[in-house]
DNA sequence: TGTTTTACTATACAATTGTTGATGTTCTTT
DNA sequence: AAAGAACATCAACAATTGTATAGTAAAACA
């Protein structure tokens, strides 16, 4: 298998552009018309591009061309993340009904596509020395365990008390949830529920 | 015109889900098959949903249903923002050829859709006291003027010297570009070129 | 040199798909 | 009670669209 020819790149570019412009994929004839060649030529190009893993099509289904990742046409993989409320403001339930809206984050900015992520709005100044400010949006990876020093979203005691974002420091039996704010003391507890680890922070200036 | 009925919501949800799953819109028959009703029923639903501004279709073009904004199916408007390099690391040119990749940001997180935005990777500790850390990604709105106290990306003198992110403080004839780091001094200059204002900050923990 | 790949033309068939007419039921609103 | 909207069926037509056959020709490769 050789690499893409110029003509194939042109066709792939056209498809990619067409999808962005129209929100649906071109038909074989849309491609043929644009390049002023026959329907078969267009179809052959699609086969070639599919063999070279640039596009994917579903046989028999119209306008089903999908531009997939490749050296020449890197697809921007997006992950949808629900923003499920504010940290330390009641109880942001981990359910889809509580989703304020979905954030789209490029997969390249996250570690692993297969993990589940969720987002919370930061309230308060407890993590200010880590550069996490009131109003910031934290994107967390859902997980139950954390390593020492990780920034985690956790609930201590009753879930209704609300989630806190803190530094995780376990020490012989106890768990210390440290704020990054010298005016505040840590929460020391026997057990807490970890909801996720901080992976991304988004701040809005306006 | 009344609001959406439960059935119409179901149909709209199906379409929305189908598009996410398949990357192409359902045909009229895909909808009919799923709900076990006739093709005409599906088609009528599409007309109703279009009249109610929930979807948009192109007549005669297969699989051209597009779910648009509405009370019940708020469309997440995305803005593509080019990441054009690192701040204070050579010269990140404001051109599309220098785009490392495109970030997708929900429009709701930005002030104005019509503005031009670009992104830069932060290098150095000069804005650490504003909670802006090395490696953070700054999303800026392209503009030439700024207000006192704004965080701006600017170049002083030759453009090749590189862009800096600083606090903007003009004072009778001079322009002071203040770092947010007490160990560093401000840049005081007669003139500088402002490239944009900071609007969004993204930090990756991993 | 021969083989493979690329890049097409022209034509055609069949499946997919959008669209419509005629018609009826149920529910809500006036 | 009347009117309209919503929801539905069956059947049919026409346009769109994917796929294929039968070639031609040039370029790339081994």
From TrEMBL, chains A, B:
NCBIfam families per the UniProt record, alphabetical: lexA
Segments forming domain Peptidase S24/S26A/S26B/S26C: 82-198
Alphabetical list of InterPro entries matching this protein: LexA, LexA-like, LexA/Signal_pep-like_sf, LexA_DNA-bd_dom, LexA_repressor, Peptidase_S24_S26A/B/C, WH-like_DNA-bd_sf, WH_DNA-bd_sf
Documented EC number(s): 3.4.21.88
Keyword Mitochondrion among record annotations: no
Gene3D superfamilies per record: Umud Fragment, subunit A, Winged helix-like DNA-binding domain superfamily/Winged helix DNA-binding domain
Protein name: LexA repressor
GO MF annotations in UniProt: DNA binding; serine-type endopeptidase activity
Transmembrane stretches, start-end: none
Keywords of this entry: DNA damage, DNA repair, DNA replication, DNA-binding, Hydrolase, Repressor, SOS response, Transcription, Transcription regulation
Annotated organism of origin: bioreactor metagenome
Any single biological process term in GO: proteolysis
Domain called LexA repressor DNA-binding: residue spans: 1-63
């Amino acid at each position: 298998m050789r690499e893409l020819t110029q003509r194939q790149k042109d066709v792939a570019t056209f498809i990619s552009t067409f999808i962005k412009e129209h929100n649906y994929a071109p038909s074989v004839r849309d491609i043929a018309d644009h390049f002023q060649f026959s329907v078969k030529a267009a179809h052959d190009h699609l086969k070639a591009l599919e063999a070279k893993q640039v596009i994917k099509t579903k046989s028999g289904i119209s306008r089903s061309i999908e531009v997939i990742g490749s050296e020449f046409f890197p697809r921007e993989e997006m992950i949808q993340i629900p923003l499920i409320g504010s940290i330390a403001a009641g109880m942001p339930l981990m359910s889809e009904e509580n989703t304020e809206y979905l954030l789209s984050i490029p997969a390249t900015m996250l570690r692993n596509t297969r993990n589940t992520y969720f987002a919370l709005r930061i309230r308060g100044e407890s993590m200010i020395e880590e550069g996490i400010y009131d109003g910031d949006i934290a994107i967390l990876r859902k997980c139950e365990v954390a390593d020492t020093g990780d920034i985690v979203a956790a609930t201590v005691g009753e879930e209704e008390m609300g989630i806190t974002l803190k530094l995780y420091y376990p020490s012989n039996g106890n768990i210390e949830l440290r704020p990054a704010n010298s005016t505040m003391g840590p929460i020391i507890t026997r057990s807490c529920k970890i909801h996720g680890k901080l992976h991304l922070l988004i701040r809005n200036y306006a």
